[in-house]
Amino acid sequence: MTTVDFAPLFRTAIGFDRLARLVDTASAGQDAQSYPPYNIEKTGDDTYRLTMAVAGFRPDELDITVKDNTLVVSGRIAPETPKTEVLYRGIAGRAFERRFVLADHIVVEGADVNLGLLHVGLKRVVPESLKPRKIAIGGAAQTVIANDPQGAAQAA
């Protein structure tokens, strides 16, 4: 596997250490298992939906947590005594844990299980302080008026 050296980037940029962490997480995830399968859909301008196939899991056997911009979905089937003898098991019922790195300002709105699919609603919520805002441009005449009461009378 090839490695990427980000040292030149870090010499001239500040605050991009999260980028290196994301690259490390992505490269480690290449060898990860592919169970359970999932879809990520964009449902609107700022809304997304994660859908995972969780056949055989009850809602109380699933756990969804968010910590440090990482969404963790895990499932653990409670052991129970089999009432029948299973001749062939094609529906996987093994425990799993899936991790998803969330972009900044992505929040989990909710989750539900329907027909063996877990749906997790996600939304981008940008704080007002980070949204673009219009800055009024003041002219030199306004500065004179504010600082010189006689200039204000002459301008009026």
User: Main beta sheet: strand number and arrangement?
Assistant: 4 strands, antiparallel
Number of extended strands: 7
What's the N-to-C terminus distance? Answer: 74 Å
Percent of residues in helices = 10-25%
Structural class, by secondary structure, is: alpha+beta
Helix tally?
A: 4
Instruction: Assess the beta-strand content as a share of residues.
Output: 25-35%
**Major β-sheet strand ordering:** 1-2-7-6
Oligomer: single chain
Q: Return the string of H and E elements.
A: HHEEEEEEEHH
Mean model confidence by pLDDT? 79
Radius of gyration: 27 Å
Describe this structure in words.
This protein is α+β, with helices and mostly antiparallel strands and 156 residues long. Helices cover 22% and strands 30% of the residues. A 4-stranded antiparallel beta sheet has the order 1-2-7-6, with no helix packed on it. It has a 3-stranded antiparallel beta sheet with strand order 3-4-5, with no helix packed on it. The longest helix is centred in the first third of the chain and has 13 residues. The protein is elongated. The model has no long low-confidence stretch (mean pLDDT 79).
Salient structural properties:
single chain, four-stranded antiparallel sheet
